[in-house]
Amino acid sequence: MSNYTYYFKKSCRMCGDTSLKKGMALTPTPPGNDFLKQSELHFDEKKYPLDLYFCENCCHIQLGHVVNPKILYQKNYTYVSATSSEFVNHLKNYANNMIERFNLKSGSLIIDIGSNDGTTLSFFKDLGLKVLGIDPAKEIAKKATNTGIETIGDFFNFELACKIKNKYGSSKFITSHNACAHIDDLLDVIKGVEYCLDDDGVFVIEVGYFLDVYENIWFDTIYHEHLDYHTVAPFEKLFARVGMEIIDVERINPQGGSIRIIAQKKDGQHSRSPNVDKLIEFEKKQGLDQILILQEFEKKISEVKKKLYKLVSTLKEGGKIIAGFGAPTKATTLMAHFGLDKNMIDFIVDDNPLKQGLFTPMAHIPVLSPKALYSRKPDYVIILAWNFAEPIMKMQEKYSREIGQFIIPMPTPLVR
Ligand SMILES: [Zn+2]
């Protein structure tokens, strides 16, 4: 199995049922973070499908094709973890709230799945709790351990859970932030959670929320690393498979459109909040229990595509120079699906020095330092990292004052 490039998932990641139906298709791309050196440009890049499937049994939305993680993460050297102070504050408040709400006593074991540099756990540790992080990025895990947050550099799964419980005992509180949409065998992870969890412990999982993706047309968050597009209802089936149940849910918005789900072992000490059924009802009202939602989504995306393509191609026919701002993974999805290639975008600038000097996957557009806006003086700059449009325009205010105009591509193309 370890030598596959990608495979087609025949059963639902949440409920295990095989009634998956294709709901929409985006343009196939290479891995969105596979930036190329000049010497690699002649290679034939392999492209993988980006199709969303809908499970008719539990309504879960997921990618049908799973690319081998070894291929997806081989070029992660361009990744720089940028934790904003706002997000660090969110994590601190989170730790305080959870300790109070679940009456976590000093000495209790707290586990974080996908713990990154240990920021979340550090707030629990500061308040006297025992902490253990798990993160597959071995270098980051080592660094966290060196700063006092013991971290296992591995993937969390049932096998690792057995070793952890053996060595550390069971855990009162297990948490996972924005890690689970990347995990193919989610059932095995949840099995491990159930195994490590104390009988009166709780599990809190934060994941991106598909309703926010749909409403804001964040379609460019669809790329191969993100296997799942979560809503609440399918989690009921997932937890039921391992003898757990949801006790509360909350829509949160630290980095744009997430949901927090709190679960315990079945018939545990906490009662179920009315929030759970309220949100599941709301999801039904929004049509998230119908495959039609994906066809509607595809229509919304096509409308933007038509408008943006017309805008950019008209400018290009008029001989304008157009740059892009930002080369995050999601820009690969956006450019591929909107047909923005090197005939449309002359160059891209990005603040990340590790990306400068490389070429974008698929479109092969050169990535330069933002200084190029002032030396090459493009007539227009499309903000590809459009979720950061406001701070980018503020930072590059000199460009719009003296040189040219910004184009915000989404959710409605806008020249400013
Ligand atoms: Zn399902």
Report the portion of residues in β strands.
15-25%
Instruction: Give the number of helices.
Output: 14
Low-pLDDT windows of residues: none
Helix content estimate = 25-40%
Text of the CATH class of the domain at 304-415: Alpha Beta
Largest sheet: 7 strands, mixed
Cα Rg: 22 Å
Strand order of the largest sheet: 8-7-6-9-10-13-12
CATH third-tier fold name of the domain at 304-415: Rossmann fold
Number of strands: 19
Bound molecules: zinc ion
CATH-wise, what's the superfamily of the domain at 304-415? NAD(P)-binding Rossmann-like Domain
The end-to-end span amounts to 50 Å
How would you state the average pLDDT, rounded?
A: 94
Shape: globular
Describe the fold and architecture.
With 416 residues, the chain is an alpha/beta fold. The strands form 4 sheets. Strands 8-7-6-9-10-13-12 form a 7-stranded mixed beta sheet, with helices on both faces. The chain has a 6-stranded mixed beta sheet with strand order 16-15-14-17-18-19. A 4-stranded antiparallel beta sheet has the order 2-3-4-11. The longest helix has 26 residues, at 292-317. It is built from 14 helices and 19 strands. It has helices at 69-72, 85-101, 119-126, 138-146, 158-168, 186-196, 210-215, 232-241, 274-285, 292-317, 329-338, 372-375, 389-395, 397-402; strands at residues 6-8, 20-29, 48-55, 61-63, 65-67, 109-113, 130-134, 151-152, 171-177, 197-208, 228-229, 244-252, 258-265, 322-325, 347-349, 367-368, 380-383, 405-408, 414-415. It has a domain at 304-415: NAD(P)-binding Rossmann-like Domain (Rossmann fold, 3-Layer(aba) Sandwich). Helix 2 (85-101) crosses helix 3 and helix 5 (158-168) packs parallel to helix 6 (186-196). It is 34% helix and 23% strand. The mean pLDDT is 94. Bound molecules: zinc ion. Zinc ion binds at residues 12, 14-15, 17, 55, 57-58, 60, 234. Zinc ion binds next to loops.
